[in-house]
Amino acid sequence: MSPVATAASFTAWVRPHWEHMDRLARRLVGAAAAEDVVQEALAAAWRSRARFDAERGGPRAWLLAIVVNKAKDHVRGSLQHAELIDASASDDSASAVAGLDLTAALARLTQRRRVAVALHYYLGLSVDEAAEVMGCSSGTVKSTLSDARRQLRDILGKEYR
Amino acid sequence: MNDVDELLRSDAERWRARQAPVFDLDEAVAAARSRARPARRYLLPVLAAAVVLAVAVGLVITLHRLRRDAPADSGLSAITGVTWRDPDSTGTVVYTDTTMRIFDGCMHELAQLRVVGETLVQGPPVGGTSVCAGGLEIGPGPAGAASRAALRRLAHFHAVVAGPATWSRAGNVLVLTTPGKGTLRLTTDTTPAPQLVGTTWHLVDYAGADDNEHAYTGVLTLRVASDGSFRADVTCGQLTGTATVTPTTVDFTSVHGCGSFAPADDVIRAVLGGHAGYAVRGEQLILNGSGQLLVYQVGSS
Fold first, then answer.
1. Measuring CA to CA, how many Å separate A96 from each of A84, A87, A116, B266?
2. pTM: predicted TM-score of the whole model, two decimal places
3. Do B107 and A78 meet the contact criterion of CB atoms below 8 Å apart?
4. What residues are paired with B293 via a beta bridge?
5. pLDDT surpassing 90 at residue B25
6. Which of A73, B142, B199, B263 would suit a FRET pair with B67, their CA atoms being 20 to 30 Å apart?
């Protein structure tokens, strides 16, 4: 029997990665829509659990890749708007202002670059782990992150290198 | 000099610290299993939902007709149907009785509009898309639209428009004031906002897979008809096909009978050959599909 055949075993199998799934959804679609996206991802994972192949990668990468795909289907505009509102509500400290600038700048990245930044910086995955989620080589993730940082630098201005 | 890598790491740390607890996994799995059940088991709930939806739609139509037939007032009709521009940013908003369409040069969102007392409040999104390709923004706007200062002005625009905003119109100026967020003075030229469907558009700009912007000075038109068909010029002839339009996206299926003779042709085929996001800003239509961009301008019919 598959290790994830029953609801109980599936739940236990997902549990170590649950917070990552939620956090990734929040980064990609915003807090308001994250629960819907994660729920859809979980339903998709349940339906296709028999097709999970441990030879091709770990469960975290598999589950996070499903979250990325579900987030792509979701309304894209909400994230930028919601994050900008949240950021503008922060205090006026220097770090809050920098955060607002960064939030607005991140909204300008392509989806692929936003996914790479979310996985590596906000979820804390290594480059290799992010590559597993994104289905590409570590070198590609490194160059995607480098492109993202360069683009952010261009937007944020000459104070940043 | 600050480092972007360090900025991202410290922002990520702050972000993680303020995240709410994750919702319950056991409940989520139970819900996921329900969603994953074969459709036929949902026949009764689906039928019930369809009945509820039909009743709700009927109520909305009835309320809309009642509102439309109500005595004329100086309410929302004073500000609906035209494009309101923020002169200090790239933000625009178009109101209808029930929706607001917000476009900031990159993000295009259609949201419900709630009128609460004398205030306007942005409600849940109906649809949204980004029309940027590789972060490139094409279209009218101040030079350096992606600068920090410009992004801060955009953040201010979004914050005020979200409401709850009191509003007043004097001539071609709409003043929105949201407590704690500030005030916007939006302007309009009173021209009704053109629609994707039924307008003849002329190509003025495009960005292909190289992410570089190219102005186009020839005459290539696009027209999406209300019957779901579309035709678009390419250098050697026309693309024709169907266009399924939602508030912020279009699904094109096209047939083309001649080759590509110019770089613009490749981009037109790519964007008008599948799923695309779109936004209308002023007299410009921006289409983003397959990572490439087309910008059209209103032309004469």
1. 12, 7, 23, 44
2. 0.55
3. no
4. B207, B288
5. no
6. B199
